[in-house]
Amino acid sequence: LTTDGAGAFDMTNIAGTLLVTDAAAAAADQVTVADGSSIELEADLTVELAYDDGATGDTTATATVTLGEASTAGGGSEIQIEETGDTVGTLNIIASANQTAGDLVLDIETDVAINLSGAGNVDLSNAQITAGDSTLNASGLSGDLTVTANANLLTITGGSGDDTITAVTAEEFVLDGGAGADTLNTVADMTSG
To answer: What pLDDT, in 10s, does the model give residues 12-64?
Structure first.
């Protein structure tokens, strides 16, 4: 199913992949997903993922977003997940093309397990993970990962590329660079005693 990304889209009862093609849709397009939904972005745009199972109580869904086009400088895609009752709790991102220069933005306001895979290089320097306790597992990524830990992203696993991970101070964190010639940057003296 293909859409030009204009406005809200409900794919709750749609099986298969939603292909979003219109880069002109600059404002956040809300896509309400079913558990297991798959979306492919064929342009640089902003998409907000929402979930509602219609039942009482808070539940989480798994959604997969494939980034099929290389990002353009200063105008990459943005994936938003807001803190609501029901929400997306697992976000699988497949980088089929390079997402470099910090152009891929993750705007996440709740606990999300982020799984990153694909052959593209991915720069998450502009990730805005502002609440909750999210994790990033890029063990399936063969491209190079660039990411900075923060107080809401304290567990990071790199992939087989040459990853660059910047640590955070005054927090306990878990970093696993994975295979590749990885670089750990520190923003301050992290030794004690």
So the answer is: 887 788 887 765 444 557 888 888 889 888 777 788 888 888 887 788 889 99
Phi, psi of 86 (to 5 degrees): -80, 140
The b-or-e profile of 13-23 (16+ CB within 10 A means b, else e) is: eeeeebbbbeb
**Biggest CA-to-CA distance, the chain:** 59
Q: Give the pTM.
A: 0.88
Contact 6, 29 (CB under 8 A): yes
77 with 93: CB under 8 angstroms? no
User: In 3D, which of 80, 138, 136, 143 has the Cα closest to residue 106?
Assistant: 80
Taking the C-alpha atoms of residue 162 and residue 193, their distance in angstroms, rounded to an integer, is 32
Closest CA to 160 of 148, 145, 174: 145
